[in-house]
Structures are given as structure tokens and as C-alpha cells.
Amino acid sequence: MKTKLLFIYFTIGFLGFNFLYAQEGSKSCELEVKVSGLKNQKGSVMLGIYNKNHKGFPDDKYIFKNVDSKISIPEPSILISKIPCGKYAAAIFHDENGNKKLDKNLIGIPKEGYGFSNNPKSNFGPPNYEKAEFQLDSGKKTITIKMVYLME
Known about the structure:
By secondary structure, the protein is an alpha+beta fold. It has two helices and eight strands; from the N terminus they run H-E-E-E-E-E-E-H-E-E. About 13% of the residues have low confidence.
């Protein structure tokens, strides 16, 4: 009888802990990404949200959530609702011709504008994940990403 009672207490305690943990992990937030420095209103802004630190950041295959937003004003903003709270990094590019990819020249230099969360400086190639990472705690967070154009 004692063993059975102990088992029941343990099971209830374990289930209660899992319920509390699930509630904490499923907390959702809202992210607003403001885009500044667009050179024109052609095409759309492609936004990629990354939730893990990958050596391949900002490779498309590691995107957690992506948004294709048509440009209708000089400084658009993109709202993502119901995103789990946590650590993220964001990458954007100005898809002027609508082909849904960042166009580059023969030696790999982007022909279209691009940007990253935290607006890190990068001399050759994209920044690493850590430089673009931000914390999405609770409620709504707004970040601003400034477009960079190398080929004008």
C-alpha cells in the first residue's frame, strides 16, 4: 500500500512539473521588424528568422520562419505574431525583381540590399549568428534593420 501511494504522489508531481514546464515553453511573443534605408519601393522585403546558432547562418535551410512582404511605404514594418519567446537572429534582403532570392554578381557580391538584426558591421560575408542574435522575452519587441546596398 505504501509503495502504491508513493507511486501516485510521484506520478502527480511529475505530471504537474511537466504541465508547468510546457506552459513556460509555449509562451508566445510578438516581433515587429522595421526596415529602414530602402532605396526604392520595388518588389518585396524577404525576412528570415533563425532560432538556432548554426555555422551556416544565414543560409535558407536554417530558417525557422520566413516572410515575404510587399513594399508599399518607404520604411515598412513586418509583424510576426505568436512566435515562441526565445533567442533569434533575423536576416532580410530587398527582392527588387521578385525572384525570391538574393541576386549576386559573378564574384558573389550582393546586387540587392540586405541587412541583419543588430545591424552588425561585416567586411567580408555575413556576420555570425551571435552578432545578429537578440532576445525575445515577452510581449512585443520591435527591432530596426538598416538596409545595406553594396552595388548601386
